Amino acid sequence: MALDSPAERRDEVVQVAMGNGNGVAPLQPLRPAGRPAAATAPYLDRRLRLNPNAEHKPQDYSDVRGEYAPAVYSALERHLPPSLLDADRDVKLHFMRDILARYWPQGERNKVQRHKEYRQRILHLYKPLHEELYNMHPSTFFLPTFLEAVRSNSEESFRSFMTEPIPGVYSFAMLQPTFCEMLLEEVENFEKWVHAMKFKIMRPNTMNKYGAVLDDFGLEAMLNQFMEQFVAPISRVFYPEVGGGTLDSHHAFVVEYGKDRDVELGFHVDDSEVTLNVCLGKQFSGGELYFRGIRCENHVNSETQHEEMYDYTHIPGQAVLHRGRHRHGARAISSGLRINLLLWCRSSVFREMKKYQKDFPTWCGECQREKRGRQSQCVKATKMAFLRGAGGATI
Question: Which of 22, 110, 124, 213, by CA, is between 20 and 30 Å from 11?
Answer without folding.
Answer: 124
